[in-house]
Specification:
mainly alpha; 51% helix; Arc Repressor Mutant, subunit A; 6 helices; two-stranded antiparallel sheet
């Protein structure tokens, strides 16, 4: 499984909006600055997340973006699925460069192991909420290095 830069930016944007839940809209440039996300990418990401029903926007001087779902109800997997459905089936690591011509077609001893890894990762993403991440940030003062 590959966690794309787009998914990381989306996760950081939602995380930043969750910090201000209930305090009104947050300006896009404030999100970009706080989470070190290029503004052009953030505009695209927030537009997509807006269509998903996770965030909404308000135009004008007092406008910005705000989280409309409770951080306890949003999982990391939700965000990744809304962005590009990258939590789909795993592709064999041995065949990344030859997706259509795998020399091991159904006889790969490694595939079951990679599938278990994929399932474990998916399980962590499905069980981790934005609220969980906020609690780690608040209790430990941890800052992400993604």
């Amino acid at each position: 499984m590959l966690v794309t830069q787009k998914n990381q930016y989306a996760l950081r944007a939602i995380f930043e909006l969750a910090k201000y839940k209930g305090q009104g809209p947050v300006k896009i440039y404030e999100i970009a600055e706080a989470q070190n996300i290029p503004l052009r990418f953030l505009e695209v990401i927030l537009s997509r997340l807006k269509r998903s029903g996770i965030v909404e926007s308000k135009r004008g001087y007092t406008g910005g973006y705000k989280l409309i779902r409770d951080p306890m109800e949003i999982t990391v997997a939700d965000i990744f699925r809304f962005m590009d459905e990258s939590l789909g089936p795993i592709e064999c690591v041995a065949c990344v460069s030859e997706k259509s011509n795998c020399p091991y077609q159904g006889q790969c001893a490694f595939f079951p192991m990679w599938q278990k890894v994929q399932d474990a990762i998916r399980d962590v993403f499905d069980k981790t909420t934005i609220h969980d991440l906020l609690e780690v940030d608040n209790s430990e003062g941890v800052h992400c290095c993604m």
